[in-house]
Design goal:
Strand 2 (about 45-55) and strand 3 (about 55-65) form a beta hairpin. It is built from 6 helices and 10 strands; from the N terminus they run βααβββαβαβββααββ. By secondary structure, the chain is an alpha+beta fold. Helix 1 packs across helix 2 and helix 5 (about 185-190) crosses helix 6 (about 195-210).
């Protein structure tokens, strides 16, 4: 594979290509983020970036600014084509987003992710060291893309303090509860959709129960799942 590169989406053609890439990442649905919206976000100074391998765009990331006093951005969508996953390209996009934000006086980036997707939980909590802010039940409502269609859109909201050291994994002695998730929910949705749907309720109920008891999500372990500790 050629060395990957990242550049901002500066033309209408870039916006159309990025929209097509993200549509493919999300199961072929073209309603996720329209080219005209990408063009507007780019033109008004938000973060819109394409990830390239050679001349081919294989991923993209979009973020917009929060209220002025917050010095914060919200990363709305980041995706890499399936054939290029597992090569650290998602991490590369996030690091580029971090550098871009810091250069503009932004100190925090927030985003949401599906709590059932173990690879994203690992990246966000274990690699980047983000902090969990909230568990959001059916946050986006019904979505008609190939990834989310027919499922409820529970999300974990995280905050990445860009200049702070990554949040370390909790000490084992502090772990009060563990919530397991499937190793590959995306594959399970294809091979056993009923079982995959059951996981949504199980993880929601378990995490929600522990959070209501005063525990907080402090990390993610690939072999075990979410690690919860008492609230400081």
């Amino acid at each position: 594979m050629s060395a990957p590169s990242i550049r901002m989406l500066e033309t209408a053609a870039d916006a159309h290509t990025a929209s097509e890439v993200l549509a493919e990442v999300w199961g072929g649905d073209r309603s996720g983020i329209a080219p005209n919206l990408l063009r507007a976000l780019s033109h008004t100074g938000s973060y819109t970036a394409g990830l390239f391998v050679g001349d081919r765009m294989v991923g993209a990331s979009v973020a917009f600014f929060a209220e002025p006093a917050a010095r914060s951005m919200h990363s709305h969508i980041t995706g890499v084509l399936a054939e290029y996953r597992g090569a650290g390209l998602g991490r590369l996009l996030k690091r580029h987003q971090q550098e871009w934000a810091l250069a503009r006086g932004v100190g925090r980036i927030t985003w949401t992710f599906d709590p059932l997707v173990a690879r994203n939980a690992h990246l966000n909590l274990s690699v980047l060291g983000t902090r969990v802010v909230d568990y959001l039940v059916d946050h986006y409502g019904s979505m008609d893309d190939g990834v989310n269609r027919g499922d409820e859109t529970d999300r974990i909201l995280v905050s990445w303090e860009l200049a702070a050291p990554p949040l370390p994994a909790p000490d084992e002695s502090d772990v009060a509860a563990v919530v397991t998730v499937p190793a590959d929910i995306e594959a399970l949705r294809l091979t056993a959709p009923v079982e995959a749907a059951t996981w949504r309720r199980v993880v929601r109920d378990e995490l929600g129960g522990y959070l209501s008891q005063g525990l907080v999500i402090a990390g993610f372990d690939v072999a075990r799942g979410y690690l919860l500790v008492p609230r400081p």
